[in-house]
Amino acid sequence: MSEVPIDVGVERAVLGCVLLKPELFRRLQVPQDAFAQEFHRTLYSAMNDLDADGMPPDLVLTNGRLREQGIHRDADLSAMLDDGALTRHFDYYVERLKQVALRREMVRLEGECAALASAPGSQPDEIDRFRAERLRRAREIYWPVERGMEPVEGWCRLQDFYQRSGELAIGTGFPSLDEIMGEIHPQSVVTVLARPGVGKSVLGLNLTANWLRRAGDWGVLFASLEMGDTLATDRLIRILDGWTKEEVRDAVRSGAAPEEYLRLTKDRFCLFHRARQPLSAIERALEAWERSYDRKIRAVVIDYFQYLAGDPRESPYVKASRLSREMKEFAKVNDCLVINLCQVSRGEPGGKTTKCPTLEAARDSGTIEENADVVLGMWKPSAEDTAIFLKALKVRQGLVGGQCELQFSPSHMRLCDTRVGRS
Asked: How high is the pLDDT of residue 164?
C-alpha cells in the first residue's frame, strides 16, 4: 500500500492564518478529515464551534475552547502564528491542503478496494462502482473543478442564466441609472466615487429605500460607518415617510409612528452603525441577521469605504487595495450586491469640485477600480445645486461614459429620477 500523503506544514499554515485573521475562516470550506494530524482536527473543530456560535475563531477564543476540553497547547498555537504569518498566501495554502487531502483519500480508497477484491465472492463491477462513487465524492469536496466545461453544459448554463437574469438582477429603482449601468447581479461590486459634500450617504440611503419599497423576501444592510444610527434612521424615515426634519421631531414628541418606515423595514433591514470596523465585522452582522430572520441579504451599502478599519501599519494605498480585494470576495462569498461609496479628495484647481471624478482619482487610492464591476463618478454642478449627476466610468454591460441626473429634495432627503419625475 502506498504511503499516506501528509503535509503538516500546510495544515499549520492554514490554521495559523485563521488564528491571525479569523475572517478567513469562512473561506476554509473543507471537512475535518482534510487535516491529517489529530490535534489539527481538534483545533479545526473548535474553530467550527466558535463560528457556529457567532464568535470569531481567533487565538484567544480558540485557545479558550481547547482549554474547556482539557487541552493545553499554548506553545503549539503560538508556533502556528509564525507558520501562518503570510496570510496573503492563505488561498494557496488551502488549495495545497485540498490537494494533499484528495491524494490521501485516493490512497485510502485503493486500500479499501484491494481489501474488497480479496474477499470471497467479490464482484469486480461492484468494486469499480464503489471506487467511482467514492472518488466522485472526494473530488466534489476537495477538487470540484478538475475538468473543462463541455460545450453542451456551457450552453445549458447560459440558458439558465438568461432565463433567470431578470429574476436575479437588482435594479436601483432609478431607471436612467439602471440604463447606464446595465444589469447588476449579486456578487457584483459597484463603486461610487465622489468628493466631500456631494451626497454619497444620500444616494446610499435612497438606494436602500428603493429596495425596501420593492416587494421581496430578501433584506438590505446599510453600513453607516460615518453617520451613526440616529442620523441614518432619521434620514431613512424622511425618505420612506416623506417627512421633513421638523415633522420627525414633532412625531417623536407626540408619539406618532413612522408607518412606512416601520412597515418596510420589518424583517427586511439591517443597520450596522459601528465606526472604524473591519469588513469582517459587517460580515458577522450580516450572517447573524440572516440566521435570525431566515432570509438572505442581497444588497449591502458601505458608507463609506475610507471608514473601514485597516492595519495601522499599512499605507493608505496598500490598505485601500487590500480592502477592495476583500470587498469583492465579500460579495462573492455572501452572494450579494455591494454598493461601495468611496470618497476621493482630488478636486479641480482652486479647490472646486464641480466636475466628475475620474478613474485616475480612484487609482490614487489603491486598486479600487480594478476590483469593482461598475465604477460611477458622482458630482454636483455647484454646492447649492440640487441636481446630482452620475457617470459610468467602468461598466461590463452598460454605457461607458453614459450619464444620468437625479434631483435632490433636501427637506425629505429624497432623490428623484428626472427622466421619470419620481423617486
From this structure: 64
**Residue 361 near residue 375, CB atoms below 8 Å:** no
d(CA 361, CA 346): 6
* Cα distance between residue 384 and residue 365, in whole Å: 28
pTM score of the predicted model: 0.66
Q: Is residue 385 a contact partner of residue 396, using CB atoms and an 8 Å limit?
A: no
For 81-103, the pLDDT digits (tens) are: 877 666 767 888 898 898 888 88
Asked if 95 contacts 120 with a C-beta cutoff of 8 angstroms, the reply is no
So what's the pLDDT on residue 198? 93
| DSSP class per residue in 292-333 | HHTS-EEEEEEE-GGGS---TTS-HHHHHHHHHHHHHHHHHH
Each residue's pLDDT tens digit, 301-318: 999 898 998 777 778 888
C-alpha cell at 283: 460580515
CA distance 213 to 261: 10
Pairing of strands 374-379, 337-343: unpaired
Residue 293: asked if its preceding bond is cis (omega within 30°), the reply is no
CA atoms of 170 and 189, how far apart (whole Å): 12
CB 46 within 8 A of CB 64: no
First to last CA, the chain: 70
Give the pLDDT of residue 365. 59
Which ranges of the chain have pLDDT less than 50? 1, 146, 348-351, 421-423
Where does 236-305 show beta strands of DSSP type E?
Answer: 269-272, 297-303
**What residues does 409 pair with on adjacent strands?**
414
Task: Measure the CA–CA gap between 326 and 320, rounded to whole angstroms.
Answer: 10
Cβ atoms of 184 and 338 closer than 8 Å: no
> Any residues with CB less than 8 A from the CB of 374 and at least 6 apart, and which?
181, 182, 184, 188, 189, 190, 191, 392, 394, 395, 396, 398
- Report the DSSP beta bridge partners of residue 376: 192, 392
